[in-house]
Amino acid sequence: MTHEPPPTATDLTSPQPADWNADHYRSRHAFVFESSADLAGSWLQPRAGEHILDLGCGTGELTASIAASGAAVVGVDASAEMVAGARTAHRDVTFEVLNAHALPYHAEFDAVFSNAALHWMKPLDPVFAQVADALKPGGRLVLEMGGAGNVQTVIDAVDHATRTLGLPDVPHPWTFPSTAQLATLLEAANLRVERTHWFERPTVLQGEDGFRAWLEGFGAAWLAPLGAEQRAAVLTEAEAYARPRLWNGQEWVADYRRLRAVAVKP
Ligand code: BEZ
After folding, report:
1. pLDDT tops 60 at residue 101
2. In this predicted model, what pLDDT tens digit does every residue of 128-141 receive, in sequence order?
3. Do 13 and 98 touch, CB atoms closer than 8 A?
């Protein structure tokens, strides 16, 4: 994940954040794991002796918190930079560089956990098929990702900027499913959906430059088709569009919308 950029496990078949820097990610994007601590706790409910896969582990903070329960955890991420940062920070936990579209696991895990990573892994149907294959019968998938409407104002800001500047549209690289779309994807992978929860989580982007820093980091792959000068112009125009919508006079607050689910392999 995460970069000045980004987040977590990305998939090698998806556009990659250009500059995943583990230290920067941990210091500037700590909200990614801090705000999902309960996902790894009361949602996952890891138990000692369980074998758990953390898919898109980023810098490994939640992986380590799951390991503290006594479960045997493997954290995987497509970013070698993130995995290197995770290994340095959490020496007792196992981390591997792996593509979520090519997981080598078959009926090995009691649970697969994923936080803030799946929206980078388009298309999701083969990923959920791999997850189902990795789970033991009765095993569970516990996930949080961007849900429908996630960071919509940021997306609108970039769309507005490219249109205003007469530039080609640049489609964002993420997938933010609705509850119904996610349930359909999970059921198609033969996972039984037990629980879903879509909710708004306004998220502070630290600093006066928080909007720009977020876009430069997480949006690096998104804006990569533009030249350097076009990118700079888009950042300026998008920030001007976003300011009356996301700047509250003291800080930037992005319109994060989350989607959580628990699904079980029958
Ligand atoms: C998210 O966690 O919702 C997210 C993070 C970076 C880019 C897009 C979405």
Report:
1. yes
2. 999 999 999 999 99
3. no
User: Given the CA of residue 150, which atom of ligand 1 is nearest to it?
Assistant: 3
Residue with tokens 């794991």: 33
Going by alpha carbons, the residue nearest to atom 3 of ligand 1 is 146
Mean pLDDT over each residue of the chain, to the nearest integer: 91
Helix (H) or strand (E) holding 221: helix 220-223
Question: In this predicted model, what pLDDT tens digit does every residue of 77-91 receive, in sequence order?
Answer: 999 999 999 999 999
Least Cα distance to 73 among 50, 39, 91 occurs for: 50
Tally the C-alpha atoms within 13 A of residue 39's C-alpha that lie toward its C-beta: 27
Helix (H) or strand (E) holding 223: helix 220-223
- Cα of 201 from ligand 1 centre, angstroms: 12
Could you tell me the distance, in angstroms and rounded to a whole number, from the CA of residue 176 to the centre of ligand 1?
Answer: 9
Find the range with the poorest average confidence among 1-5, 101-105, 109-113.
Answer: 1-5
Radius of gyration from C-alpha coordinates of the chain: 18
Task: Give the closest residue to 74 by CA, choosing from 82, 84, 64.
Answer: 64
> Domains of the chain (ranges plus CATH)?
2-150+174-207+254-264 (3.40.50.150)
Q: Are 43 and 262 in contact (CB under 8 A)?
A: yes
